Amino acid sequence: MDQQKNVLVIGAGIAGMKACLLLAKTGKQVYLVEKLPIIGGKTIKNEESFPNLECSTCMVAPVQQEILQHPNIKTLTLSEVEKIEGDIGNFTIIINKKARYVSDTDCIGCDMCFDPCPVSISNEWEENLMNKKAIYVPCSGSLPNVPTIDTEHCYHFNGKQECNACVEACMFEAINFDDKDEKVEIQVGAVIIATGSDIYDVSLLPQFGYGKHPGIYTSMEFERLFASNGPTSGELTIRNSEKTPKSIAIIHCVGRKEQDYCSGICCMYSAKHAHFIKHKLPDTKIYNFYRDICVPGKTYQKFVEKINDIETQMIYHNSMDELNILHNENEITIEYITGKSKKETLTVDMVILASALNPGKDFSDISKMAKIDLDKNGFFITNQEKVGSVESTKPGIFIAGCAEGPKDVQTSVIQAEAAVSGVMSCLDS
């Protein structure tokens, strides 16, 4: 059997997109598979990216557009890989492409179908800080800018009542209730897994009070809270109210002990959060509770030192086991043990929990499907015999970005470039 030159990239975050473009520009046919209805990954949830505080949307949108328009890239959103068989040079891939129920060729992204929809449900992409309709795009600026229908909640599909509101609102006849899921089979010579990572579930740590007080946020919730395209258009107000916080505590290393590894980016995004709070609310007091500060690299250290010197008060505490968040309807109180073993308390209006990064929930399934190994923490293993390797434990399958372990945007891009180099080496040698 002739060796295939096509490549499959799983995951359309920053690493997956970078790998796609590099491969496509060499003439390779690339299949980009993304389970969400949009591409861009978690980077597009951020208002800006450290350390240069670049506009994340401005940085990523041109890449998204180039991918969607490139003739050598076939983008399959709302899709998941179901089977990987074969070996390097000749992999057979089965993909389940879910129905969108909206034509990506006829829809012009006018949004006229949203308002007539009678359904209002929580928007997971916006960290449940706002609602969406049963026909929706995850957020403002989504690419592709084509809605999808949540059939679980859509009245037309779940049988609660007859409803054609979105069809009647669409003058371009782009909505098709008869759309069907389909199985797509492709042949590729190599695979790049760039499936990103998840955020540690802070509700597993009841001492932090998450979910019990409206002023306690995860780090990703806060990212969306101050994003200009987020649920409050960047207004920093406490959930379910119009109250502006006068004091905010950022708790570092939430989940660090439970995960048994440092995620390496939490200190940086905590410093970024402090910067933005001061930018939007200059009179707000900011407190950073920490036990360790991890900021590798010459630019990162300078960034954190600058923020901490000017914009925030650093509070060292003795143990995460002895840090508790108490609350009532009006206030949040943090109890902690200082480095001098003294018990202290601090009352604030808002708390941001800087949580660890987790392996994705589907990593185990992908591992079994692709017959590649995971490390003890649940991330994909790369070849331990080669320093800096991006090769998985199966020849022809490469790992890039946070699928291999927690990392920042810059390192994810570098790893994507390395994965592309590996693909080119094994397919064109």
Mean pLDDT: 93
- Number of helical regions: 10
Main beta sheet strand tally, sense and closure: 5 strands, parallel
Q: Tell me, what's the shape?
A: globular
CATH level 4 superfamily of the largest domain:
FAD/NAD(P)-binding domain
The CATH topology annotation of the largest domain reads as FAD/NAD(P)-binding domain
Evaluate the radius of gyration: 23 Å
Spans with pLDDT under 50 lasting ≥5 residues? none
Strand order of the largest sheet: 5-2-1-13-24
Determine the strand fraction and express it as a percent band: 15-25%
**What is the β-strand count?**
24
Question: What features would you describe in this structure?
Answer:
- With 429 residues, this protein is α/β, with parallel strands linked by helices.
- It has 3 domains: 7-98 and 181-197 and 359-428, FAD/NAD(P)-binding domain (3-Layer(bba) Sandwich); 99-176, Alpha-Beta Plaits (2-Layer Sandwich); 200-356, FAD/NAD(P)-binding domain.
- The chain contains 10 helices and 24 strands.
- It has helices at residues 14-25, 56-69, 155-158, 165-169, 219-225, 256-259, 266-280, 298-311, 363-370, 409-428, and strands at residues 7-10, 30-33, 48-49, 54-55, 73-76, 79-87, 90-97, 121-122, 131-132, 135-136, 148-149, 182-188, 190-193, 198-199, 216-218, 247-254, 285-290, 313-316, 324-327, 332-337, 343-348, 350-355, 357-358, 397-399.
- The chain is globular and about 70 Å long.
